[in-house]
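# step 3/5: fold
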Amino acid sequence: MATHRRILLALAILLVGGSMGWTSIYGLRLRSEAYRREVVEDLTKFFELPCDVGRIRGRTFSSRAFENVDIWLPDRRGRVFHCKRAIWQERDGDGRKANELELADGVLMLGTDRWVRADYRQVLQSALSHDFERLNLSRIGMERFEISFDRGGLAIHFRETTGIVDLSKPGDGVASLTAYELNGHRISQGVRIHARFLPGNAIAVTEMNLTLPEIPLAVLSTGSAAFGSIRSGRFAGNVQYNTRESDPELWISGDLDDADLGEATQSLPIGPLRGRFSVKVYGARIHEGIVTHLRGHGQLSGLTLAPLASLLRLKSLSGAATLRLDAIDLAEGRINHLAVSGEVSDLALEEWLEPLGSGSATGRLSIRINNLDLQDDRIKAADIELTLKPQEGHAGTVDRALLLNAAQRLLRFTWPAGIPESVLPEKVAYLECGVRLLVADNRLRILGTHGRNSDTVLTVSILGQPLGIVKEQPGMIDLGPWLEKIKERLQAYPPDRLREWLKSGALGP
């Protein structure tokens, strides 16, 4: 019996000693300089870019650890990838190989101003143009990564990025990552990054989507084509880059709150405009730097009209507006639906009449838009009130010729026969003037706003007594021909010139 125990003990020592010996040989092989150079050469051939590996060591017979892995642009002009630790794990799953790669503490550079055009194609091909199925690679894990893109004024820098790249389905790669810092701003909820691409011999990134919690817009607006130079306000929502169609496009949806209109319009030829705005965006498409589609609703507050004077060919323009955009649906220059309500106050009537050269009037004009509903380039419905009142402390006046001409053309008013027009002074003192404009399917009805029956348009002072001399008239006015002329003028403007203006002016940094 003792002999048997000695034999078994000797066999155990032999087996353990042999296993430790083979493990030592395996470890020495992985740690050797010759093997490291061999791996570097294989990686360089695989990625077709210069590669370095600082150290290799064995973990188990089915896994290896690589330390300080670097991938460079051609001629080592810039580092594309760095990883302090990469672990290759060979596994069996469902009867087939399902290898995994774990990356930790690294940096991934997607582009800088130092790169030339060919570098982008080289990096994308190196990252995506390989047959991962042939390598039996099913999953890539990433921990504590920095991902950066800094080119053409657009800077996106993610830190503390963690997640996985799923390659388990042949021909379909999905990356799901979460970053907890964006452009130096800590985001406790994290920015979710979702990307889909097609592994294979061609470059085929089909989509990339960022889901953002509410963050200061300044974090996103570093020269971004989506938000331009807007730095005030906050944004929460989604930014999606889509390349499935022939031309890449950017889609945005979410909430933009309390942004500075001046920052958004500072590069406009008529800008900057003063005011604040908020927008709920259901979907906005940006193609070649231009917003081609927009659906949502929003509000403009404290909009100062003075900068619009040159656009309207006026010497000056006073007043301010608060507008509620109750519905917005625009597509490639066409108004599918636009619903507006709001107020425009403290307009000086003299400023609007001066270019007409047909007479003058004094007073302050206010406009209340109860509803303005445009659909398919038509005024589906409108309810707008215009009120003209004398400036406080001064009498309001209107030239007699201007008054009679306007009443005749707009209200089909006819001066009573047998009463000379000279009964009115050359400058008529008015007490109140107002109209209510009702539109249904491009047909306008003009109503009065005051008087005993609320049918009076203009009340003047004759010998110190109020007299309503202009009343509302029955009938409708067809706005179709007038709107058609406006549409023709807009269509006559060269679209290429408009596109260049929008690129260089409206959306410029």
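# step 4/5: annotate
Residues 240 and 346 are 42 Å apart (CA to CA).
# step 5/5: archive (pending)
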